[in-house]
Design goal:
- With 358 residues, this protein is of the alpha/beta class.
- It contains 12 helices and 12 strands.
- The strands form 3 sheets. It has a 7-stranded mixed beta sheet with strand order 2-8-7-6-5-3-4, sandwiched between helices. Strands 9-12-11 form a 3-stranded antiparallel beta sheet, covered by helices on one side. A two-stranded parallel sheet has the order 1-10.
- The longest helix is centred in the last third of the chain and has 25 residues, at 268-292.
- 44% of the residues are buried.
């Protein structure tokens, strides 16, 4: 019996693997540090906004996300026409690929970087051009520029980079952007922007303003703690933003997500306090790991990276036995989300024990 014909582009595309949930032993707490989620509950006023929207679940959400778009435009000082929303920043990234790349085209990005890039590139039918990180786990922007050809349609720059945490500084990034051909879209994926403390790391929104081929991705999933509602957005010049609206799934962003995002934007003092606490914990974890003898890339995100090579799975299993699930990338390393202090302490104790085995 014959089967339906599916696109050949799907052959070999891996399925996205979410972070493993925690496995609690009896009487022992367990923590999930595998998905870069915010460990805290929604910001003040957010749950109430979402609950109010839930009373209207029999109605379609606002297709245009008009109130949220207006709020974002005012917050970032950009035209409303330059804002487009989607189902998380990864959803918007996939819309960008639908708008720019297809069979015969190429998409350039650093590797290792966000694991969704090869998946959504493959789905589009375009060819992925993966440029290895340098020895310090940074984007090799010179090599990425050299990889751009006449077939290149889009370049992803993950800043800070997921899963290593490194961030690209202003002079280097501006030099790169100014050399990329003007007909190639450069996407600055800034899902972790709120956690950046290095003043030399530029805000992508400032870089986009006079560069029509630059788009900026942001999300409410990380610092704002709305991972379960799937809402992100792009800031881009009108032709790109309009293309995003054309490729969006109709009514894909729920009213719960829209109202919760608006309430989150209006709870900025509480957000800043929460982010400051996570950044403080990040510094503590990095200092402790460094004191143990680990090499930790300078992270500007809400996670840290340990390159463990063939011992990656062994370390992840040790953490899980201790009560904390982390994110292993087999044969490469482990990404550890900054969570509650108790969870971070579990990882630090495990890392100290593991370090003694090396």
């Amino acid at each position: 019996m014959s089967t339906p014909k599916l696109r050949a582009a799907l052959d070999g595309i891996p399925t996205y693997k979410p972070g493993r949930p925690p496995v609690a032993a009896e009487g022992v707490p367990a923590f999930k540090l595998s998905s870069n989620e915010n460990p805290y509950p929604p910001l003040p006023g957010v749950l109430e906004a979402a609950t109010g929207a839930a009373a209207r679940l029999n109605r379609y959400p606002d297709l245009a996300c008009a109130e949220l778009t207006a709020e974002l435009a005012e917050r970032f000082g950009v035209p409303v026409e330059h804002v487009a929303t989607g189902t998380g920043s990864v959803g918007v990234a996939q819309q960008l690929l639908q708008a720019t790349a297809g069979p015969g085209d190429e998409v350039v990005y650093a590797w290792r970087s966000f694991e969704a890039y090869p998946i959504i590139t493959g789905i589009s039918g375009a060819a992925a051009v993966e440029v290895p990180l340098d020895a310090g786990e940074n984007h090799d922007l010179d090599a990425m520029l050299a990889a751009v050809t006449e077939r290149t349609r889009l370049v992803f720059v993950c800043n800070p980079n997921n899963p290593t945490g490194n961030a690209i500084r202003r002079a280097e990034l501006e030099h790169f952007l100014d050399r990329v051909p003007s007909d190639v879209l450069v996407v600055l994926d800034e899902a972790y922007r709120e956690f950046i403390t290095d003043p030399e790391v530029p805000d992508g929104v400032e870089l986009y303003r006079d560069r029509p081929n630059v788009a900026v991705l942001r999300t409410f999933s990380k610092a704002y703690g709305l991972a379960g509602l799937r809402i992100g957005f792009a800031i881009a010049h009108q032709p790109v933003a309009e293309a995003l609206r054309k490729t969006a799934v109709p009514f894909g962003v729920s009213q719960l997500a829209q109202d919760a995002a608006i309430a989150s934007l209006r709870a900025e003092p509480a957000l800043l306090e929460r982010v400051a606490g996570l950044v403080e914990e990040r510094a503590r974890v990095v200092a402790a790991l460094t004191a143990q003898g680990w090499t930790v890339p300078p992270t500007q995100a809400n996670f840290v990276w340990l390159r463990l090579g063939e011992r990656t799975a062994e370390f992840a299993a040790a953490c899980e036995r201790a009560g904390a699930t982390v994110r292993p990338f087999p044969g490469e390393g482990v990404r550890i989300t900054i969570g509650e202090s108790e969870a971070n302490d579990l990882v630090l104790r495990t890392a100290a024990d593991f370090r003694g085995l090396l």
